Amino acid sequence: MKKKRILITGGCGFIGSHLAVDLTCQGFEVTALDNLSRRGSEILLQQRVNACGAGFIRGDVRIPEDLRKVPGRYDLLIECSAEPSVLMGTKGEDARYLLDVNLQGAINCFEWARERRTPVIFLSTSRVYPYDKINACRYQETETRYELLEGCPGVHPDGVSAEMPLQGVRSLYGASKLGAELILQEYAFQYKLPAIIDRCGVVAGPWQLGKADQGVFAFWMAKHYFRGPLNYIGFGGTGKQVRDLLHVQDLADLIGTQARILMNGAAPFYGEVFNAGGSRFSNLSLFEATNLCARLTGNAVAVGSIPECRPADMIWYLTDNGNTGEIFDWKPRRAVKEIFEDIFLWMRENEAEARKIFL
Ligand SMILES: NC(=O)c1ccc[n+]([C@@H]2O[C@H](COP(=O)([O-])OP(=O)(O)OC[C@H]3O[C@@H](n4cnc5c(N)ncnc54)[C@H](O)[C@@H]3O)[C@@H](O)[C@H]2O)c1
Q1: In terms of CB atoms within 10 Å, which end of the chain has fewer, N or C?
Q2: Alpha carbon 286 to chain centroid distance?
């Protein structure tokens, strides 16, 4: 039987390359399209995308012609390309690159899919939720973290639900992703284009070439492994801000199921939004991350303290996965300890590559 074909835009990024490997192993014919703008994406191209036998096209989602040149018919598009920095634009700098990639680039991908009647899975983010409302909730400070005491509509101790009202501010990154979500929903409705939107919380795992402003837990581990400087920034500078954490393989399991459903036309999805995060099952504060990293690496790093918050930072975020689990028979299976162990083992096995990226 002819293999189903999947195009992954941003396919040499952390999530895109993981999906390329996972879906290729499952017997799909995968092509990754990427402009290799992310630091380290050429390493993921060589060691992950090429190594698993997936195809590669160098292309830029901002340029419709680059997409048009992709040869042949595809059964699914997974749109993972992005400039994912939540800090971009917060220091008064020009943020048009972020908007061009995340908004216009995404629209170009949806247009490519519309012309070919190819179903779409779009990787969105929990950053669409307004952080000013989340930060304004009431929190209790414990020895190692903040915990939510009193939420607001859509925000409760077990997480932020997809029902949270969206008025408020969310960063240019979050706004660009929300804009792309809304356009995709219109495409799904107006053009009957099958589409699923996954709003992911923090995703982590091996091969994440993290930076302070994106992929922070891999970055935190690297700074312990290679003994680099670290700071707790914001919310008093004690590292008690909390995030949930989803193992990239758990995300791949969810997307694999969604991919099969969309490609088989088994159930109609037209722009529905699904939260996907580690949830209460897998979450930690930065302070707790420091303890875990120190234990795994054997290196204790003195972490500095900068009490002032950076713009767009959030004191607490857990995902309420809502009906995602029920609909796709899915739940996160790998919790914080396993995620950190996997990152550590990957760093140890690939020390030379990791050194190039993180030092
Ligand atoms: N990693 C997370 O914790 C997380 C959380 C929520 C949502 N997401 C979303 O998941 C998706 C993938 O994130 P990631 O962590 O893999 O990020 P990443 O930066 O590792 O991957 C993005 C990829 O897109 C490529 N890219 C950037 N601009 C491009 C362009 N103009 N044309 C083609 N390719 C381009 C980059 O080179 C990179 O390989 C993004 O849409 C992001 O918003 C990620």
Answers
A1: N
A2: 18
pLDDT tens, the chain, 359 aa long: 889 999 999 999 999 999 999 999 999 999 999 999 998 999 999 999 999 999 999 999 999 999 999 999 999 999 999 999 898 888 888 899 999 999 999 999 999 999 999 999 999 999 999 999 999 999 999 999 999 999 999 999 999 999 999 999 999 999 999 999 999 999 999 999 999 999 999 999 999 988 877 889 999 999 999 999 999 999 999 999 999 999 999 999 999 999 999 999 877 899 999 999 999 999 999 999 999 999 999 999 999 999 999 989 999 999 999 999 999 999 999 999 999 999 999 999 999 988 888 87
**Ligand 1: nearest atom to the Cα of 37:** 37
* Distance from residue 79's CA to the centre of ligand 1 (Å): 9
Task: For residue 102, give the ligand 1 atom closest to its CA.
Answer: 41
Q: Distance, CA 10 to ligand 1 centroid (Å)?
A: 6
Residue type, 24: T
259, 78 Cβ separation under 8 angstroms: yes
- The ligand 1 site (C-beta within 6 Å) comprises 10, 12-16, 34-38, 41, 60-62, 80-84, 101, 105, 123, 125, 177, 200, 202-203, 215
Dist. CA 347 → ligand 1 center (Å):
21
Q: Which two three-digit tokens encode residue 179? A: 């804009």
Fold of 5-358: Rossmann fold (3.40.50)
Q: Which residue owns the Cα nearest ligand 1 atom 1? A: 203
Give dist(CA 238, CA 88) in Å, integer.
24
The ligand 1 atom nearest the CA atom of 173: 43
